[in-house]
Design brief:
By secondary structure, the protein is α+β, with helices and mostly antiparallel strands. Helices cover 33% and strands 24% of the residues. It is globular. Helix 1 (15-26) crosses helix 14 (398-420).
């Protein structure tokens, strides 16, 4: 068997796998993607239901991501930004916390809101300056702790931690304890400060489709679940095989560990996303609404159709409610609890909302507990001929999925070149 005549086999058509294929194609190395599911994108997918666009879990694109700026055409995605900041439900009403650098008109409302002290608001400005000074590579070399310990070390009060940071970053990391890495917190805080959080007009899944657009469709094989890898060959669930010049595993962490036969417990966080249709939006701003009382089950609420009207048919509104974890309640019990909580926020209109769909996502993100890997030097080369990209050897999020895909492709090409010398 002349292995040099076979393609590089990429297992998984998520963002990391697609970026790996893009880079291999740029370097003129033949490749094929084997994807177990019925579509591309991994977690970055959007479903159309009754004319509504439903992203699979609460997701946004941070426009400041350096790798996204390199890989994506923002103008073609037709991005629609959120207002920076949030509305926070606390003590029976909504309070505004805005970014005074970009929304100076809301400076006084932010200063006089009961969310945090005046000192806290000055500390936010100081934190913004502090995380913006080092390079991103240097940011990920700073001392690491939990996000909660980091915020306390910065002098933030329990008030602002409980009313703002906990509900906001619970929706980022899908865990309520703020146990995730302080480096990841600083990175996300910086990206929010330097750019915008936005939704593509076609839903979050449009990102994956844009990444795949220059790739030959016949090279992406759906319904092709790989069950074993060996040097120079992969085995599929139907018993067939595919010879490989090299193998890149671009699956989620649990699947990667299984394929590599590594005895590693890969911890993940979970989330539940509930969608409703309404005749009118409960808030008219393109902004996030947070549970500042931590009464649950909803941690944050968004009206995606107020961010991008394409998310709902004309004359209707789409409402997205995020719940951390997988609740024990069945569908009816959970919907009742969600409506009860949101009725306190928005009144009797909540009873008229039509439930569209609930996504219970058990493996929403890999755990970001410290110590975390260096995303600028992720684990890429497992052994000769077998490589990794995605969350198993790196960090979570679009930025790092894209970086790991590119670095894996470049490592493959370097190995192939050295083998030919």
């Amino acid at each position: 068997m002349n292995i040099s005549t076979h393609p590089v086999v990429i297992i998984g058509a998520g963002v990391a796998g697609l970026c790996c294929a893009r880079r291999l194609q740029q370097l003129k190395v033949p490749w094929v993607i084997l994807e177990a599911s019925d579509g591309i994108g991994g977690r970055v997918r959007t479903d159309r239901v009754d004319g509504f666009l439903l992203d699979r879990g609460f997701q946004v694109l941070q426009t400041a991501y350096p790798e996204a700026q390199r890989e994506l055409d923002y103008s073609t995605l037709k991005l629609h930004p959120f207002h920076p900041g949030a509305l926070i439900y606390y003590q029976g009403r909504l309070h505004r916390v805005a970014d005074p650098f970009r929304q100076p008109q809301h400076l006084w409302a932010t200063i006089f809101s009961p969310i945090g002290t005046l000192g806290d608001k000055l500390r936010v400005a100081r934190l913004r300056y502090r995380v913006s000074q080092p390079s991103l590579a240097e940011l990920f070399q700073q001392p690491e702790s939990s996000t909660l310990a980091y915020l306390k070390a910065q002098g933030f009060s329990d008030n602002i931690i409980e009313r703002f940071f906990r509900p906001f970053y619970s929706g980022v990391f899908f865990e309520k304890e703020l146990a995730s890495s302080s480096r990841m917190f600083a990175f996300v805080f910086r990206m929010l400060s330097e750019g915008e959080a936005a939704l593509p007009e076609g839903g979050i899944g449009a990102i994956a489709h844009q990444l795949a657009a220059p790739l030959p469709p016949e090279a992406i094989r759906l319904h092709s679940r790989v069950v074993a890898v060996d040097d120079g060959r992969v085995t599929l669930a139907d018993g067939s095989g595919q010879a490989a010049r090299a193998i890149v595993i671009a699956t989620n962490g649990r699947q990667a560990a299984a394929l590599l036969q590594e005895d590693r417990q890969f911890a993940t966080t979970a989330t539940t996303n509930m969608y409703f249709a309404a005749a009118a939006p409960p808030v008219r701003e393109p902004t996030l609404v947070l549970d500042g009382e931590n009464q649950g089950p909803v941690t944050n609420l968004l009206v995606p159709s107020q961010v991008s009207p394409s998310y709902a048919p004309p004359g209707q509104a789409l409402i997205s409610a995020t719940i951390i974890g997988i609740p024990r309640e069945d569908e009816q019990q959970l919907e009742k609890a969600v409506r009860q909580q949101l009725s306190h926020w928005f009144g009797p209109q909540v009873r008229t909302w039509r439930h569209l769909r609930t996504y219970r996502i058990a493996e929403a993100l890999p755990s970001q507990l410290p110590p975390t890997p260096n995303p600028f030097a992720p684990r890429v080369r497992v052994r000769p001929g077998i490589f990794l990209c995605g969350e198993y050897g790196s960090l979570s999020g679009l930025q790092w999925a894209m970086v790991s895909g590119r670095l894996a492709a470049e490592a493959v090409v370097a190995d192939l070149a050295s083998a030919e010398i």
